[in-house]
Design goal:
Elements lengths: L1 H16 L3 H12 L3 H29 L1 H28 L16 H13 L2 H15 L4 H16 L1
Helix pairs in contact: 1-7, 2-3, 2-5, 3-4, 3-5, 3-6, 3-7, 4-6
Amino acid sequence: MLTPLIKGFTLGASLLIAIGSQNAIVLRQGLRKEHVFTICSICFLCDALLILLVVGGFGKLVASSSNLMLTARWGGGALFLLFYGIRSFRSALKNEFLSVDASKPLASGLIWAISTTLALTLLNPHVYLDTVILLGSIAGQYPETERLIFAIGTAVASMV
């Protein structure tokens, strides 16, 4: 019973360690020392809910339908990555650099932080690719009793 927990934790940690949009907002709020507990709690609760949904059967539902799998793969993932890649390539060709204008105040406040965190967490196609496709397919390899243990390991990685 320890193996699915450890595998869930290590897989979850490997997916979450990469600095994506969700981690960027956590780092930003942490550096500013604003609403850190709230932001981290929202991220953990969203991650845990998505993980439990997928391991509880949503991943199997998507995997069992070729249309849903095709939509998730191409609609959510490939098109987003293609658009993001083209945008990044165009940005790299420009002779510009990132600068911070100190005269302009940064957006802040609890409502801004919460809404931005929810948007970056739930509207990010990487979340669904990683959770639904990857975690769902790996969790589906375990017997039903061990899937929950795998999910707990993955959720604990998010919390850590």
